[in-house]
Amino acid sequence: MKKMLENKLAELEGKRVSGEPTIIHKTAAIEVAKRHSAKDIALWLFAVVALILATLVNQYLPAYWQPANNIWTRIGVIGALIISALIALALTNQGSAFKTLLLDSRIELRRVTWPSKNETVQYTWQVTVVSLVLACLVWILDLVSSQIIQLIIG
Fold first, then answer.
1. How far is 92 from 34, CA to CA, in rounded Å?
2. Between 11 and 130, residue with greater pLDDT
3. Could you tell me which residue, 144 or 15, shows the higher pLDDT?
4. Residue 140 lies in a domain
5. What's the structural domain count of the chain?
6. Using alpha carbons only, how large is the chain's radius of gyration in Å?
7. What is the Cα–Cα distance from 51 to 79, expressed in whole angstroms?
8. Residue 26: what pLDDT?
9. Mean per-residue pLDDT of the chain
10. Residue-level pLDDT at 14
């Protein structure tokens, strides 16, 4: 188990266990997201039109298509339009950069040191006490300022 974790950590750092660096030609997600192409523009336009149509289906489709009088048909059409828009967005450069970001954040979440139960309870009490003290302080400041304003106004 320990050896497997060491190998995984070495892969994440871009080095082999033997110490030789591994060459990684992975383009950064931000660079991928900045790229624009005609395909991206077409997919973005399709996604925007599909989402606009999804908002209009419920009101206008039953007048033009008889099966759309059934609520489940309209829900199906709306769902299909939303799913097709999401798929189109996933196929863009920005979508692939977002997928890379999600994978990277998943790796980062594995590295997080989570607090123990005792630490969590202790921190919760600390936050609660400080919040109550600040609430009392704001309440007192409100009382004092309202008394001062009442004296000035009369």
1. 11
2. 130
3. 144
4. yes
5. 2
6. 28
7. 10
8. 61
9. 86
10. 55
Comparing CA positions, the residue from 50, 44, 29, 45 lying closest to residue 92 is 44
Co-location of 136 and 74 in the same domain? no
Report if pTM > 0.85.
Answer: no
Contact yes or no for 63/124 (Cβ under 8 A) = no
Question: How far apart are the C-alpha atoms of 46 and 63, rounded to whole Å?
Answer: 24
Q: Is residue 61 one of the residues assigned to a domain?
A: yes
> In sequence order, which residues have a C-beta less than 8 Å from that of residue 98 and are 6 or more positions away?
29, 33, 90
Instruction: State the CB neighbour count (10 A cutoff) for residue 97.
Output: 19
Averaged pLDDT, 21-45: 73
Burial of residue 92 (CB within 10 Å: 0-12, 13-18, 19+) is: buried
- Show the domain range for 137: 116-154
Are 6 and 101 in contact by the 8 Å Cβ rule? The answer is no
Q: Judge whether 57 lies within some domain.
A: yes
One domain for residues 95 and 69: yes
Q: Which of 130, 128, 131 is nearest to 120 (CA)?
A: 128
Same domain assignment for residues 99 and 45: yes
Measured over the CA atoms of residue 109, residue 115, residue 121 and residue 126, the dihedral's sign is negative
pLDDT at position 23 = 47
